[in-house]
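[step 3/7] fold_predict: job queued, chain A
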Amino acid sequence: MELGENHHYTFFEGGKGTVSLEIDMKTIEDILCIRLKGDLDHHTAEDLKNKASQLIETGGILHIILNLGELSFMDSSGL
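[step 4/7] structure written:
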């Protein structure tokens, strides 16, 4: 089993300085594991898409595992 790099991103709610969404990503061989904590909404969905797409395109990813256990809110843009 080949472990890749860990990636951590934190997005803040505009102007308030409070954390809106935390994203942890790890690759294990051809699997991308994504853990989300906080709010996934129209403000953060595009950021998640861009970060995940970059790893998928450059890392030979064939499978994705999403951990939504710590997600406190998701609107339709998160789907």
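[step 5/7] annotate
Residues 10 and 50 are 14 Å apart (CA to CA).
The first helix runs from residue 45 to 59.
exit 0
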